[in-house]
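thought: user wants a sequence for this fold. calling inverse folding tool.
action: design(structure=
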């Protein structure tokens, strides 16, 4: 048995800064600041499935759960748990692959080295390791150094953005501060922040006059800067609504702001080009984007626009990223055909599975104005649709419901996708979902048969 290897906190104090300058469990904090860490410690995570409704557990409840056999652990933690919690017998052992992902109550203790994105980690004593590592209470002695500022890359992925029509009218009347008030704290401290923006900029455009052709005033593109966006997906249907000149100017603006983009471009080759990024730990990861149907003539078949989907094109890109570029993790985003349903279309299901079979690590639907189901296929996640992020629809509960995802890269793979559920206000101001709204969304999109 190793000596005393669980600790309440092995990090020395650092300053954690939210957008309001105060510690806030709901906001992201900057873990990239200089920090001194105990080099022989690694976090131990308490994890359940996506179906688990618990978000936090106290240390005392954790101990009781281990003693009663309700909480299992991986084999590498048994001796340490016995010592840390003064157990009279060894805890129940379970491997990661034996875990019941259809269960809404099962919990497993394992290290960050073993966890994967089929799990959702819980807070312990209301401290989420991924948000506030210095306050997290459970660490395991490790034979390799672990430093979140060097080993973790923080990524945030959002749903549909189209700042236009009634949203634009609200911005004209109330301003950007009002519009972003309830969500902006979540958009600090990330290394990469994604939006799927479907609209190009056009000076002097009239929001009230718009119906199905969209544009955004240049001053309202400031929203992307306020949210620290640096990854823009261009697979959407409406980027060419007001012509090629507006599209070109918008692409130039992205480049001037240092916002990388994928899934669309100024010619077919650029539209088909994946975005490759090197993480903090030097692993390479990639984003690939497609549009399934191109219903508005928005695809770059001959000129500029979105990247039209084809099986051959997707196979070639994924194979090249693996074999030639040496990418560790591939995210494929697809603008599928729209459907007003929590259920994906038959085409969606087939193409998402097809992409996983090709070698994608995750497939995310970018089209969904109504939030859609989450599925695990061959041990990999499919997010059929995250719903509206910044759009004006409020005509039904389904289009007001959505989520964005905090994601964490470690050793070249995403070890956690953590949904943050949202609900659009009748005043078209984005809000974080209440507990009741959150559970309503979860019941609609999380089904045991999909895990």
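)
observation: tool returned 451 residues.
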């Amino acid at each position: 048995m190793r000596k005393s290897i669980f600790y309440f906190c092995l990090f020395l104090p650092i300053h954690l800064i939210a957008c309001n300058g105060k510690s806030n469990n709901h906001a992201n904090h900057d873990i990239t600041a200089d920090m001194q860490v105990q080099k022989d410690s690694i976090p131990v995570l308490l994890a359940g499935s996506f179906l688990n409704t618990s978000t936090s557990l106290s240390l005392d409840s954790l101990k009781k759960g281990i003693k009663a056999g309700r909480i299992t652990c991986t084999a590498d933690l048994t001796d340490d748990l016995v010592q840390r919690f003064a157990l009279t017998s060894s805890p129940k052992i379970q491997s990661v692959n034996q875990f019941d992902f259809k269960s809404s109550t099962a919990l497993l203790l394992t290290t960050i080295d073993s966890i994967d994105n089929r799990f959702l980690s819980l807070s312990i004593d209301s401290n989420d390791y991924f948000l506030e590592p210095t306050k997290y209470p459970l660490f395991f002695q490790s034979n390799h150094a672990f430093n979140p500022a060097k080993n973790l890359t923080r990524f945030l992925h959002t749903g549909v953005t189209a700042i236009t029509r009634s949203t634009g009218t609200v911005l004209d009347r109330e301003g950007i501060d009002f519009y972003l008030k309830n969500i902006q704290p979540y958009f600090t401290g990330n290394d990469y922040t994604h939006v799927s923006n479907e609209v190009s900029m056009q000076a002097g455009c009239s929001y009230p006059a718009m119906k199905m052709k969209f544009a955004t005033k240049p001053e309202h593109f400031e929203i992307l800067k306020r949210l620290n966006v640096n990854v823009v997906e261009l697979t959407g249907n409406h980027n060419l609504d007001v012509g090629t000149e507006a599209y070109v100017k918008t692409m130039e603006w992205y480049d001037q702001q240092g916002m990388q983009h994928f899934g669309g471009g100024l010619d077919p080759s650029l539209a088909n080009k994946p975005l490759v990024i090197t993480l903090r730990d030097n692993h390479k990861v990639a984003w690939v984007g497609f549009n399934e149907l191109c219903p508005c003539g928005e695809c770059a078949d001959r000129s500029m626009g979105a990247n039209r989907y084809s099986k051959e094109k997707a196979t070639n890109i994924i194979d090249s990223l693996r074999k030639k570029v040496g990418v560790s993790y591939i995210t494929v985003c697809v603008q599928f055909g729209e459907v007003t349903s929590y259920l994906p279309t038959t085409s969606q299901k087939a193409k998402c599975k097809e992409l996983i079979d090709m070698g994608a690590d995750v497939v995310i639907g970018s089209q969904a104005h109504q939030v859609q189901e989450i599925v695990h296929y061959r041990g990999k996640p499919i997010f059929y649709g995250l719903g509206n992020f910044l759009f004006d629809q409020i005509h039904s509960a389904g289009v007001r419901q959505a989520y964005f995802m905090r994601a964490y890269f470690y050793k070249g793979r995403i070890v956690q996708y953590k949904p943050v559920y949202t609900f659009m206000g009748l005043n078209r101001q984005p809000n974080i979902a209440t507990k009741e709204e959150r559970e309503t969304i979860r019941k609609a999109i999380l089904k045991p048969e999909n895990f």
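thought: summarizing for user.
answer: Here is the designed sequence. The first strand starts at residue 41 and ends at 48.
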